[in-house]
Write the structure tokens for this entry.
Amino acid sequence: QSALTQPASVSGSPGQSITISCSGSSSDIGDYNFVSWYQQHPGKAPKLMIYDVSNRPAGVSNRFSGSKSGNTASLTISGLQAEDEADYYCTSYTSSSALWVFGGGTKLTVL
Amino acid sequence: EVHLLESGGGLVQPGGSLRLSCAASGFTFSSYAMSWVRQAPGKGLEWVSTISGSGATTYYADSVKGRFTISRDNSQNTIYVQMNSLRADDTAIYYCAKDLREFSSNSHDYWGQGTLVTVSS
């Protein structure tokens, strides 16, 4: 069981916006701004999409945005495109001995 | 251009050992923390271990603490993970990843292609 909780799947049509949630606790997301999001296509290595809650690395489309409220972080993808179909993982620093924890992942389907 | 190339994966019996390597190029290696992240077949990502840019500080997931040892050779731009007392649940693709910072932030902007470790008799 993952320390961070994500929905198993979300879907949307091209052009729409979707939001993926990542629920944690006051020991991780709630108390620290070290939340990152990764995109992973089948058979490929993960790709960093968001770091430090809401920062985008160079080269990542501004259609991807991150935010946090309380113990929950969110990844929003606007203007959905077919190539956005992938698995998405959140991760956060935790004050427990685990140090870094991942969510279980969310499969995004573009209809 | 940044490149990370893992090697050393393979089939090992339970209780056995394996050492993975990750050769890096295209950036100032000693300025960044480096990590190992694994993914069991059909499962999600799991952080395994991180080493700071200088190599002075290391971090481990509880699941591998006491069994895995991460190290780096900044003269060779390479990191390693020595994996001992391997168990079936260590079976996974092991990715080498570069951190955005000198110290661990779990924000990895470059990843290798991964190397498969299979623990089975």
About this structure: Chain A touches chain B through 25 residues (CB under 8 Å). Strands of chain A lie at 9-12, 18-23, 35-40, 47-50, 64-69, 72-77, 86-93, 100-102, 106-110.
